[in-house]
Protein 1
Amino acid sequence: MTQSPSQDHRQHRFAALVEQLNRGEISRRQFLAQGAALGVGLTMLSFFVRHAQTTSAFSPHPQDATPEAGAAPSFGTEGKTRGQDGELKVLLWQAVTVLSPHVASGTKDFIASDIINEPLMRYLPDGSIIPNLLVW
């Protein structure tokens, strides 16, 4: 089956767009907007964005940063005591069912139980372990 000239043109434009993203010439937001304008689905676009973040010259983004384990905030807590500002609200995409990590049924339960039961160690995205309450 042959492609129409407009489909072939869109494929070439999308390939060029992916190359620009991989070289860091356009932002993720620009890539998503231009890719959507070409008719590419968000799922496919997010795949290319994630690939570019892990394999290209992209600088780390704030949402990908891993804070040091056990580090206190460097600002905003001067002269305050624990619990002074009221209740902590956690917004999750799905409601928490249990607060025990031993019978948790998903990430939502682990996130909620982590506030109450701090683990001795934490896992980084690459699978390595860092101490949290445990000291090496």
Protein 2
Amino acid sequence: MILIKNDFKLNNVQSLISISDFYKNKILYIKNNKQIKNKKNIINIMGYFFTGGIEKFILDIDKYGDHKKYNYFLLFLNNKNHIVNTNLKNFTCIYFKDNYELLNIINIIDPLIIIDHYSQYLENSIYNYKIYQNITIHIIHSAINYNNDIAALNIENCIHLYKEENKHESWNKIQNNYYNTLGIKIINKKDLDIINNQKKIDIEQNKQLIIAIIGRIVEEKIPIDFFKKLCKLSLEKKNIIIRIYGSQNHVLDVNYNSKFDKLIENSNIELYGQINYENMNEVYEKINYLLIPSKFETGSYTCLEALSYGIPVITRNNYGLKKILKNNITGHLCNNDDEIIEKIKFLYFK
């Protein structure tokens, strides 16, 4: 089947007559009520839709994007048996089952710009012969590929959340390699001391230390070897309350989910599931520390959220988080799993 990109017309919002029934069934919804003929199309691409930094990026565009000037599309990996609720008001959301189908959809939409949060984590470029690469901006949310040779991806335009050191040399050859620091202006030490002292009082009065993990429940974010140690800690120290707010990927991570479910079932860790962004203040108001056990955080929206509520962060001493946090002031940077566990114990007993 050959798809001609000029066949895609948005004049009639209620029907996409020019797209075959096969592709029409992949359109989840269109809520851009006033489609203008001369609007330019901007595509965002991601893997499976999940709660995390990429989704927050998309939600910001949904809220603050120039919807009078542009049509915004979100293309994401999915299968027909997986129900997705994106909660987006100003995006046309379309899912694809593989990269061949993705390229066909891109061809139909004929975008002005592609914002790619997806293909840089693959082994090979999806843009054969560099097609679309001149209009594609790759945004790097994870450091998982920083040690790998990514020359085969033929990336031309790239935005990192932090200028990481010691990346593979192939990253340095990208033609337009930009860096955007996500960091916030740290409030003065006097104010931090007031916040930290209040946290100590809360812990002493309640006789509990409440720690939360917020985000996706996957190996990249909560390594299973670390989670075993965390579960053990929850059984040994019952006054250390550990809560997890997030959801599992039931499509990709079946093996991980099985291990995670068995561990948490035999622990005292509390699992709350995914929390809507508008209710996140209720979470931060009830916890003493945020724990980010991920090994590949190049920048963390969750970390910035916690700091905005005066919540210190416990995490690893690598990549972007070591540039956001001031060790032992706005949080605690640890070098390995055991150091994280010992730090949690120390924060309760100090």
Protein 3
Amino acid sequence: MNWKPRKFLNHAQGWHSGSHAIAWAAITTFVRKVIPRTSNSERGIAVPRFLMRNVCFFIIGAFLLIKFKYMKFFFEREFLGSLILLFVSSQVYSQTVELQNSFDNIISILREYNIETPEVNGSRSPDPSLVVKKMTFSFKYPNAYISYYLAYAPNVTEVAGYKPGKRTITFSILDTDFKEGYASYNNKSLHFHSEIGIEKTELDKKDLLESWNLVMSPLICKKLCKELHQFKFLVNKTGFNGSMGNQQIVNSNYSVPHTSNNIVIKLQKEEGGVYTIPCKVNGLSLKFIFDTGASSVSISKSEAIFMLKNGYLSENEIIGSKQFQTASGAILEGTRILIKKIEIGGLVLRNVEANVVHSNNAPLLLGQNVLSRLGKISIDYQTSSLTISR
């Protein structure tokens, strides 16, 4: 067939209807997806790819324009529908690729960089006594999962309140907010917050948290926060309701030790023969005297003021005043408070009443209103350890 420039221009001038414009948009989108555009700085180097794009446009456009008057009916019906379908498919494919890339980027960040969990960051003094191994990310709509294995640092044989094993954090990707914050040791923290709760599975025990966080360098924190926002946006935009990664991730090199349902907590013997036990009160690490003779939890006035000033206790959690009798028989005035959460050896107790003694030197006592809720308790005074059987 002889091609004439005049004939090509005549058909080009007739390319004016809406259906033709849609078809041309579909063609250009398809070519752009197949052969990405090079930047101006790249064109001097990547000449073949740049030429391929323009040649593709020219050949497809010329062919359709020349054949237009012979295939008008077919073009405006079947072929136009195919082009529109091609256009939509290319858009969906592009978004799916973006979603997969974002997912892979999150996994890469979690695996390759030094990222600390709350347990590791909380065990610093100043070096952490715990380390995280094999942290990974997975997704099964609507939940995202961050799994990791908690282990002792080199030359560390035991850490009070922590046992090595697998932890899994489960959160709804669309209902969770990600925000950067400040942390110690020149690091930043990435906060996960969800109104419907964040589930933490720790050695087959579950707890529902309102927030959770990871600690890392400022640049990595910014990068991970950006990728999580991007993944959340793409899941919502594409309506993706499938799964990515493995939701049951347990690395064979780090199998979870599990011999019984007993929880062993290391006690520290203090002067006077009393034993203290590490606890977390609304996230604040404190050491309480293990006192089976005390009826309830008791804290000093100085601790209560510190908690109130630093957000570990709110005015709404102050119940009222109360008189109580000490072991010596003295009657003291105190304040009753409600502690939202006490963590002991990985166990979580909620809504625990406690007494604030109006003295700055009063000891912190862990009484029966907590001990009775832990389960069966036994103390080995030779090893200074407390065993909780559940």
